[in-house]
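Sequence only, no structure available. Ideas?
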Amino acid sequence: MEHFKSGFAVMIGRPNVGKSTLMNHLIGQKVAITSNKPQTTRNRIETVWTGDDGQIIFLDTPGMIRKANNKLGKFMMDVSTGTLEEADVVLWLVEPSTYIGEGDKNIAEKLSGIRTPVILVINKIDTIPKPELLVIIDAWQKVLDFKEIVPVSALRDQNLADLRASIMKYLPEGPKYFDDDVLTDQPMKQIAAEIIREKALHALDKEIPHGIAVTIERFHARNKNMLDIDATIICERESHKGIIIGKGGAMLKKIGTNARYELEQMMGEKVVLKLWVKVKKDWRDSEVLLKNFGYEKQS
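Reply:
I predicted one. Tokens follow.
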């Protein structure tokens, strides 16, 4: 195809700035899980947007944390920084504020050493009065030599077409990497595990969500319209197991009901979901368990 462009746009930013929400809205379907808790995204996720004149492969990475407290944290840091080298363009997501804290200064320092073009994306502009935006843009212009600054609201779908157009400017001419109907490189089994983890993140309080993982033991199409999924929620302590199960199994039932509903909406078929809870002490510091739960570097 003549003058067709294709390439990779990596999303970076502090935890909770809305990277996963933005990526879902840019491609028009939920693939990455979202929550208001830090470290929701742990792995690198590729999603695909295909237009008439180009294809953008978005890489959503874990939020850039300054210090890793365990091997899972280190894995997440390595994923975030390693992906920068593969990108054609970097999208740095920030919140609509003139305050530039240590976390963002740390990211600016990392980006100042790369040659990849950087677009600053100021997200959540629906949460501020319009006159404030110019002051915010002015403050951020001094932080780094950005190719462009694009204000958006991922949640309200504001300026997303403008952002896609800006990204396309910096992509090379190239082939389609994925067919038109492909939205992600994630297998459905992995998406199912992440959706169950998302529902647990939403339902559970405080520190427990950091210490959970989800593994899929069985993913079987019983017939054309029914899918059996057996999954295990892994936690680090016996006390956490009790909280996840809840009184009379109420919490586990809530997580399962919410996950099943979303899986059925996404897959367009009936889902029979069975959940278990297991304790794996300090799994976030075990290389073997991290690998078993899908947290390993992708080549």
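The two ends are 29 Å apart (CA to CA).
Hope that gets you unstuck.
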